[in-house]
């Protein structure tokens, strides 16, 4: 685990408001956002932050675990969501990648008086370092996911793209082989 | 007499509703209606809360609520949800054995994971 020195920029923000949360007996779960789909990850985070994965859940008090999300800039979306819409996702990621996940999770939490407290339990970091290295952390394994089959048109397009890539690879190999062959003939 | 009773029921109300009879009368009537309705709603809410707790407890062991209850029904275990939620909170090992019974009767489903085609940012 890298230490705090690499993180001096945002230390204040990362540790903000920690004193207001009663941290007795809460676990620190680490979510790795690398290669995860945005919405599915956000729904899992929302269940953990609400405390709905504990059998001692009570709707009137906030008992969720602290959630740390790493690699926020490596989050993925399917389809063309990056460039759709007027306020594109790409611009937002350039501006502040943590806001994407934070908004996604915030909008999945129930709108009640506990929502702000739950928001305070979420810490998101764009890279993979965080200043909480000294706490007992627990990585979160995402539950297995069943993905639907690709639609026939998308599948055909992908196959065509693959074939094109293969052909280009072959051409590049042949070019190299051809050059080597000529050089050897000349020398011989 | 009536006023006295109404003010007694109006304790803790907001603003003039606890002091002025005209407003207090309306608010007290509404409060009694709400309490009638909520005596019935409370039973529903509590059952829903028990189900949420049982769901959380079983998911810790890899089974979801639906499959768990199905397995218990098949085995003719007639514990009700209130008791099951208490067991899941306070007696984790007994609960685990219940989950194992349910899983043996009715094996859970396995998920197939194919890496999806995603656009990386």
UniProtKB/TrEMBL annotation, chain A:
<protein>
    <recommendedName>
        <fullName>50S ribosomal protein L13, chloroplastic</fullName>
    </recommendedName>
</protein>
<feature type="region of interest" description="Disordered">
    <location>
        <begin position="135"/>
        <end position="188"/>
    </location>
</feature>
<dbReference type="InterPro" id="IPR005822">
    <property type="entry name" value="Ribosomal_uL13"/>
</dbReference>
<dbReference type="InterPro" id="IPR036899">
    <property type="entry name" value="Ribosomal_uL13_sf"/>
</dbReference>
<dbReference type="GO" id="GO:1990904">
    <property type="term" value="C:ribonucleoprotein complex"/>
</dbReference>
<dbReference type="Pfam" id="PF00572">
    <property type="entry name" value="Ribosomal_L13"/>
</dbReference>
<feature type="compositionally biased region" description="Basic residues">
    <location>
        <begin position="153"/>
        <end position="162"/>
    </location>
</feature>
<feature type="compositionally biased region" description="Basic and acidic residues">
    <location>
        <begin position="163"/>
        <end position="182"/>
    </location>
</feature>
<dbReference type="InterPro" id="IPR005823">
    <property type="entry name" value="Ribosomal_uL13_bac-type"/>
</dbReference>
<keyword id="KW-0689">Ribosomal protein</keyword>
<comment type="similarity">
    <text>Belongs to the universal ribosomal protein uL13 family.</text>
</comment>
<dbReference type="GO" id="GO:0005840">
    <property type="term" value="C:ribosome"/>
</dbReference>
<keyword id="KW-0687">Ribonucleoprotein</keyword>
Automatic annotation (TrEMBL), chain B:
<keyword id="KW-0699">rRNA-binding</keyword>
<dbReference type="GO" id="GO:0009536">
    <property type="term" value="C:plastid"/>
</dbReference>
<dbReference type="InterPro" id="IPR049946">
    <property type="entry name" value="RIBOSOMAL_L20_CS"/>
</dbReference>
<keyword id="KW-0689">Ribosomal protein</keyword>
<comment type="function">
    <text>Binds directly to 23S ribosomal RNA and is necessary for the in vitro assembly process of the 50S ribosomal subunit. It is not involved in the protein synthesizing functions of that subunit.</text>
</comment>
<dbReference type="GO" id="GO:1990904">
    <property type="term" value="C:ribonucleoprotein complex"/>
</dbReference>
<dbReference type="Pfam" id="PF00453">
    <property type="entry name" value="Ribosomal_L20"/>
</dbReference>
<dbReference type="InterPro" id="IPR005813">
    <property type="entry name" value="Ribosomal_bL20"/>
</dbReference>
<comment type="similarity">
    <text>Belongs to the bacterial ribosomal protein bL20 family.</text>
</comment>
<dbReference type="InterPro" id="IPR035566">
    <property type="entry name" value="Ribosomal_protein_bL20_C"/>
</dbReference>
<dbReference type="GO" id="GO:0005840">
    <property type="term" value="C:ribosome"/>
</dbReference>
<keyword id="KW-0694">RNA-binding</keyword>
<protein>
    <recommendedName>
        <fullName>50S ribosomal protein L20</fullName>
    </recommendedName>
</protein>
<keyword id="KW-0687">Ribonucleoprotein</keyword>
<dbReference type="GO" id="GO:0019843">
    <property type="term" value="F:rRNA binding"/>
</dbReference>
């Amino acid at each position: 685990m890298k230490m705090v020195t690499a993180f001096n920029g945002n230390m204040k923000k990362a540790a903000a408001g920690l004193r207001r949360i009663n941290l007795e007996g809460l676990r620190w779960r680490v979510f790795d956002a690398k290669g995860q789909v945005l919405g599915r990850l956000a729904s899992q985070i929302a269940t953990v932050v609400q405390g709905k994965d504990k059998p001692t859940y009570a709707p009137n008090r906030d008992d969720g675990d602290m959630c740390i999300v790493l690699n926020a800039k490596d989050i993925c979306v399917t389809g063309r969501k990056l460039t759709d819409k007027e306020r594109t996702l790409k611009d937002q990621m350039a501006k502040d990648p943590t806001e994407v996940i934070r908004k996604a999770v915030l909008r999945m939490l129930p709108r009640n008086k506990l929502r702000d407290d739950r928001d305070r339990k979420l810490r998101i970091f764009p890279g993979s370092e965080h200043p909480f290295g000294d706490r007992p952390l627990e990585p979160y394994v995402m539950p297995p996911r069943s993905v639907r089959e690709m639609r026939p048109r998308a599948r055909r397009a992908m196959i065509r793209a693959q074939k094109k890539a293969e052909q280009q690879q072959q051409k590049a190999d042949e070019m190299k082989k051809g050059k080597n062959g000529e050089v050897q003939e000349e020398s011989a | 007499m009536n006023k006295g009773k109404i003010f007694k029921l109006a304790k803790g109300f907001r603003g003039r509703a606890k002091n002025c009879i005209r407003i207090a009368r309306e608010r007290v009537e509404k409060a009694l209606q709400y309490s009638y309705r909520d005596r019935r709603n409370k039973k529903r809410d509590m059952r829903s809360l028990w189900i949420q707790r049982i769901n959380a407890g079983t998911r810790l062991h890899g089974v979801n609520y639906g499959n768990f209850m199905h397995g218990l029904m098949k085995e003719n275990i007639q514990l009700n949800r209130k008791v099951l939620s208490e067991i899941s909170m306070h007696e984790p090992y007994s609960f685990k054995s219940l989950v194992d019974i349910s899983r043996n009767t009715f094996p859970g489903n396995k998920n197939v994971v194919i890496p999806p085609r995603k656009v990386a940012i």
